[in-house]
Amino acid sequence: MSTHMKTHARILDGRAVADRLISNVADAVATHVDRGGRAPGLAVVLVGDDAASEVYVNHKIRACQRAGLVSATHRLSHGTGRGELLALIDALNEDDSVDGILVQLPLPAHLDEREVTRRILPEKDVDGFHPVNMGRLAVRDPGLRPCTPRGVMTLLAAHAIDTKGMDALVIGASNIVGRPLALELLLAGATVNIAHRFTRNLEKHVRNAEVLFVAVGKPGLVDPDWIAEGSIVVDIGITRGEDGKLRGDLDFDPVAARAGWVTPVPGGVGPMTVATLLQNTAEAAGLVVRAP
Ligand code: NAD
């Protein structure tokens, strides 16, 4: 591989778009409060002491402060029982000062993530993981939408990219990223393929993709030579290397030499996820947030 590789691709600048989105949330909140309204409230529930979860939760709380949202973090010990966690969710569901509830995943193994996700009222489910919200997205009547997929669509729209009619490939089929992203793309009019651990001949599908999304968490899964010239490439994966640095699923330089658009990691999808959580919380409180 040449060391002076030319970068052709334009950057999908998640940090800049996320900053604009947070400003727009802040504007909506300020207007609402000026008119005598209550600042929207987000309750974050963190169980145990997972290091990555701690980092994510801190990002979310700081972003809330920037936007003028009221956030409260409920830190529960690793050994918290099912009943105690469900009782907290019930109390937050009842609390009129709480517009959004987020239970940071993963939960400790003795707690059932499905049961917990379903306990949150769909209209307070700012992560968009409740089956009602996933179902609404599937039947083209979106309610609260999962943050990372919605953030990806906002990022594309902010760069005037419309996926309508495009051949799209989503690699990764998880409930929190791949599946809802495929539903977002279908809603936007793309022709959607979803690859996952049982997919044979990933290369064929990648070569055919005009717009490619990679959400697996395994760097090196996609050979950069497979990337179609001029395509749009969104790297959602986040892996922390042994050097402590964050990296995506793709090798940025060789991908950028072929693609038309590409996201950096960090500075691509990650900031959009956090900003979209604030957007969802403001919308759950009935506010209208301008597109960034
Ligand atoms: P997950 O482990 O739940 O799902 C991974 C998916 O990849 C599965 O559907 C699996 O079938 C698929 N997969 C595994 N091996 C494969 C292979 N060889 N070929 C094709 N598909 C394969 O992970 P997740 O929660 O969806 O997260 C995926 C990645 O996205 C992780 O790196 C995670 O850290 C990152 N992530 C980033 C953000 C963000 O804001 N940028 C948000 C959420 C998750």
List the helices and strands and how they pair.
Elements (H helix, E strand, L loop, with lengths): L9 E2 L2 H21 L6 E7 L3 H17 L2 E7 L5 H13 L5 E4 L9 H7 L11 H8 L8 H12 L8 E5 L6 H10 L3 E5 L6 H7 L2 E4 L17 E4 L3 E2 L5 E2 L4 H7 L2 E2 L6 H16 L8
Parallel strand pairs: 1-11, 2-3, 2-4, 5-6, 5-7, 7-8, 8-11
Antiparallel strand pairs: 9-10
This protein binds nicotinamide-adenine-dinucleotide.
List key phrases describing it.
292 residues, Rossmann fold, 2 domains, 40% helix, binds nicotinamide-adenine-dinucleotide
Write up what this structure looks like.
- The protein folds into two domains: 37-121, Leucine Dehydrogenase, chain A, domain 1 (Rossmann fold, 3-Layer(aba) Sandwich), CATH 3.40.50.10860; 146-270, Rossmann fold (3-Layer(aba) Sandwich), CATH 3.40.50.
- A six-stranded parallel β-sheet has the order 1-11-8-7-5-6, with helices on both faces. Strands 3-2-4 form a three-stranded parallel β-sheet, sandwiched between helices.
- It is globular, with a radius of gyration of 19 Å.
- The protein has ten helices and eleven strands.
- Helix 1 runs parallel beside helix 10 and helix 6 (147-158) crosses helix 7 (178-187).
- With 292 residues, the chain is of the alpha/beta class.
- The two termini are 38 Å apart.
- 40% of the residues lie in helices and 15% in strands.
- The site of nicotinamide-adenine-dinucleotide has 25 residues, from helix 10.
